[in-house]
């Protein structure tokens, strides 16, 4: 059952929308013989098998069935082990998780693995630990896809965020010299890399994943406290027609999480400030001010007059904005 709509849903999640999906054509599940090639990996697998009974109990209590496919279960266990040990089949393991994460059981288990969750967040942010093999795939996109699929329509995984929120907001990434960043805050790292990001598809998947993370009350609170909405506005203001689809994803994020209760949004927590004047928002120092969303959306809407979603977003914002008050900052 979907906790936001009250409607019954199938046990398996629907994978990320086609436009956000990652093509994994040709990727084959890893066999245990191929994946667990060292004694250390075999020991790790033994730990998983020993832990299986407790997993069954937990799954039963949470009314989440243990997957029937032993092949999929072995692939999942192998992938987790390889990622933890930075094995040579690292990228294949990451892609295999992307294939499995939409299942409610696997989605929840991914979030429960603190080190894996933190690794996925780091990869999504473009911060790769120094001890992983050279890349063969787009790891930012694949990691974001794994996380997004794990949280999609998965209340059990979202509940686990409450215990893992600091691993997401404050990931302990060890960036290599090529992408070294001093800040260790999810929002600040994302923002720092935003200027150089030219892959609209990467950003779209990240925004989709972020929207699903925001279904967690605890994560949402930390996100708002750390100027997360300013980050989202900065993404919205990326220039270029190729980013128009990203802007639409941001519109969906705002409506789903903050503006429309029928989509499960928690209303009256954002926006907190009244709308700012055009004159105020046109000043460069006020570009990312929270009261300037409408100004930027209206500017964009004039560029795409046939699109309805900017107009709908403006109406949704208008319905939630506090009434206008006199602000000294706008004088």
TrEMBL record:
Keywords: Endoplasmic reticulum, Protein transport, Signal, Translocation, Transport. One of its GO terms (biological process) is protein transport. Pfam families: SIL1. One of its GO terms (molecular function) is adenyl-nucleotide exchange factor activity. Belongs to the SIL1 family. Interacts with KAR2. This is Nucleotide exchange factor SIL1. It comes from Erysiphe neolycopersici. The lineage of its organism: Eukaryota, Fungi, Dikarya, Ascomycota, Pezizomycotina.
């Amino acid at each position: 059952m979907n906790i936001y709509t009250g409607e019954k849903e199938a046990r398996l999640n629907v994978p990320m929308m086609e436009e956000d999906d990652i093509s994994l054509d040709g990727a084959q599940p890893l066999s245990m013989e191929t994946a667990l090639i060292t004694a250390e990996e075999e020991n790790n697998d033994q730990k998983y098998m020993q832990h299986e009974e407790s997993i069954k109990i937990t799954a039963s209590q949470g009314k989440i069935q243990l997957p029937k496919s032993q092949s999929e279960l072995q692939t999942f266990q192998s992938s987790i082990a390889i990622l933890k040990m930075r094995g040579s089949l690292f990228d294949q393991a990451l892609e295999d998780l992307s294939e499995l994460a939409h299942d409610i059981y696997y989605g929840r288990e991914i979030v429960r693995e603190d080190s894996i969750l933190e690794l996925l967040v780091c990869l999504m942010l473009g911060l790769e630990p120094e001890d992983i093999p050279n890349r063969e795939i787009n790891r930012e996109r694949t990691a974001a896809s794994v996380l997004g699929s794990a949280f999609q329509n998965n209340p059990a995984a979202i509940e686990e965020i409450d215990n893992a929120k600091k691993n997401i907001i404050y990931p302990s990434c060890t960036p290599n010299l090529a992408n070294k960043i001093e800040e260790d805050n999810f929002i600040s790292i994302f923002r720092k890399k935003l200027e150089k990001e030219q892959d609209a598809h990467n950003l779209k998947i990240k925004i989709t994943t972020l929207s699903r993370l925001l279904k967690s009350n605890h994560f949402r609170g930390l996100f708002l406290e750390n100027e997360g909405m300013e980050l989202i506005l900065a993404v919205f203001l990326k220039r270029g027609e190729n980013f128009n689809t990203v802007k639409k994803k941001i519109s969906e994020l705002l409506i789903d999480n903050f503006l429309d209760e029928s989509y499960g949004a928690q209303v009256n927590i954002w926006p907190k400030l009244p709308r700012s004047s055009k004159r105020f928002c046109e000043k460069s120092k006020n570009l990312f001010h929270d009261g300037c969303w409408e100004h930027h959306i209206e500017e964009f809407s004039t560029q795409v007059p046939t699109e309805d979603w900017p107009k709908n977003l403006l109406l949704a914002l208008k319905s939630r904005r506090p009434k206008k008050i006199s602000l000294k900052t706008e004088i």
